[in-house]
UniProtKB/TrEMBL annotation:
This is VOC family protein. InterPro entries: Fosfomycin_Res_Enzymes, Glyas_Bleomycin-R_OHBP_Dase, VOC_core. The lineage of its organism: Bacteria, Bacillati, Actinomycetota, Actinomycetes, Pseudonocardiales. Residues 1-125 form the VOC domain. It comes from the Bacteria.
Amino acid sequence: MLHHVELWVPDLARAEATFGWIFTELGWTEHQRWSAGVSWKLGETYVVAERSPAMTGPHDRMKAGLNHLALHAGTREDVDRLTRESEAHGWKLMFADRHPHAGGPDHYAAFLENEDGFEIELVAT
């Protein structure tokens, strides 16, 4: 079981607006908060967004490292609702020409990207 993921972000307020919205919508709750970060938890797993002074550059999902987080998002209707609402919360739909089957014909999901280049995949169960 995954323990946690830590994301270093260039702008904590933007990360809170985007990740905080999606995690809350998916049933995660705020877990910890400090001056440079915040985390959200579901079960025993948590995700941290932190503005670290040791960060040396912007996130690039196309380079080695984290490409995206894939999250269970409920039903197809839930994925559709979150996709419709996501733009108002700082997310942009990726692969719109293949949505909601960008992951393949048997895979129903929304691939979203925020302004800092972080990608979230919302997967229908």
